[in-house]
Amino acid sequence: MTATPRMIPDRMHSPLTRALRSWETILVVVAICVFITNSLLSPHFLNAWNLSDATFNFTEKALIAFAMAMLIIAGEIDLSVASIIALSSTVMGLVMSSGAGVPVIVLAGIGTGLVCGAINGLLVARMGLPSIVVTIGTMSLFRGVAYIVLGDQAFTGYPKEFAFFGQGYVWWVISFELVLFAGFAVAFWALLHRSTFGRAVYAIGNNATAAQFSGIRVQRVRFILFLLTGVMSGIAAVCLTSRLGSTRPSIATGWELEVVTMVVLGGVSILGGSGSIPGVVLAAVIMGMVTFGFGLLNVPGIVMSIFLGFLLIAVIALPRLLRRR
Amino acid sequence: MTLLKHREALLALVILLALAVIAARFPAFVRPASLANVFNDTAPLMLLAIGQMVVILTKCIDLSVAANLALSGMIAALMNGAGVPLPLILLSVVGLGAVLGLVNGLLVWQAGIPSIVVTLGTMTIYRGMIFLITEGKWVNAHQMSDAFKALPRHVFLGLPVMGWVAIAAIGLFAVVLTRTPIGRAFYAVGGNPHAAVYAGIDVGRTQAIAFVISGALAGLTGYLWVARYAVAYVDIAGGFELDVVAACVIGGIAIAGGAGSIWGAVLGALFLGVIKNALPVVGISPFWQMAISGSAIVLAVAFNAAQSRPKGRIILKEAAQ
Description:
The complex is a heterodimer.
Chain A: H1 15-21, H2 23-41, H3 48-55, H4 59-73, H5 81-97, H6 102-126, H7 131-150, E1 155-156, H8 164-167, E2 169-171, E3 174-175, H9 176-193, H10 196-206, H11 208-213, H12 218-244, E4 246-247, H13 255-265, H14 277-296, H15 301-324
Antiparallel strand pairs in A: 1-4, 2-3
Helix pairs in contact in A: 2-14, 4-9, 4-10, 4-12, 4-13, 4-14, 5-6, 5-7, 5-12, 6-7, 6-12, 9-10, 13-14
Chain B: H1 2-25, H2 32-57, H3 65-81, H4 86-109, H5 115-134, H6 146-153, E1 155-156, E2 159-160, H7 161-179, H8 181-191, H9 193-198, H10 203-229, H11 240-250, H12 262-282, H13 289-308
Antiparallel strand pairs in B: 1-2
Helix pairs in contact in B: 1-12, 2-7, 2-8, 2-10, 2-11, 2-12, 3-4, 3-5, 3-10, 4-5, 4-10, 6-10, 7-8, 8-10, 11-12, 11-13
């Protein structure tokens, strides 16, 4: 990874040109194109219930992507998120088997995420280890524990009330997960773009040493970010387990890469220092709608992942190649 | 350099210790034939770890190796089905693997995209291409010629050919990395890219070459894998890229680039290989393997960091974090 020097222009463009040229605008255009293409290609696309179904494709991943975006902006990464889901789900299964009620199951799931996040945070922030390697390790470790507990078995038989988190509707076609997604989108927007903590995250991502000298407690912010990512993974685990109604150790395999793709597609620089929550929200919606559209057209899931792979490289390569001219 | 040697010696010691503990209760495990089997079984991991190590030396990472392996392996199986002679197949898979590596390399070099993003993308693209070519069909043992399947398993001096290929690659890259200009360039680019530029080294080009090496090794391993297990399908070696990175990390290859040796990568792979093969012998459920290798990675990183922490007096405690 070669670090390109960050240019600071002598004078800014007008607010309008900046808005038009921004990554978020491109994403909005892409989202509209996807929406129009889908509705032209399939008569079943523009149906409130179908669209509502489509949101399940991205809500759980997006919950993690919000926290991951902040982590990547701060120059770190967490590849263990999918494994945290597996471990959280397994703990929820254990708690459920011992006859606990719904509130305890949910708390156990979120609590496991918190503990996993704290482990990552301690290893990175306290011991100063590189996050990519640490989380590749804990990625094996967390899912490995789930495999030790479950082997080739599965937990099923979650209580009926537990199904609400992944299958319930708040009002008409508005699912509980969609409300959660919207709520956290606003919360993370406020945290990243409207709080001193958010400013600290950008400062650390741009220059951790300078941030340290300007009085930001760098390691504490990093620790909190890992904690936050763990908790969001725990919440996603609650939703996913509730939606599937069962726990297997292979649950959510490969999600870490989809979440990172979502964040990068949303305009967050993988090198840290820039990106926004609205971008991640748009990327989540685009990915969900593309998956859903392909599904309606009976395109296999793997073709969809090829498309996302191309999209990921293209959206990052194009602006860089154009800027060279 | 003495520090590095120390680190690899320590890892070798850990492996020997593990073998000794196992041998105390299960002497059959350390018989030469059994050890040769463990080595042979670990050959694919060693081959990929060597390629990955070269990439990591240049400050990059290649997450597409397992997908490259699967695609090259499938092409090898299909060419064999079409009656292409074996030497031509071997040349083709190495060439295809190198081209797939070159695609990664060019995107990193010419488009300036971070390698983790590039290979995250090509990882899904390469694996998806297998599906597009085969429509998800498998190539099974009875669809492969006997010569195709026999080569990696052919035993020569007590070790199957696949093991010998790994030994040859270790020998070749031990020389390339320490005795050639390009080998020094890999270290220079990762150690200090700016200094490398002033020393007349093209950073991007060197990184691209590293990706080509990693790709070519993955292509070759693709054939070995498919021929040895006598089956090819979309998901072979799924998630293997993380084992490969794990082998490098355990072997003390610095993820920030510029430091590490081929012996570290090989020993890291062997460590994982010994654990994988020993678990069923010792009677521990294979489901423990994932957690053990995860713990090994975390411990190895913590250990490496503790060793390489700069010694000296900290004058500004807060800033030194």
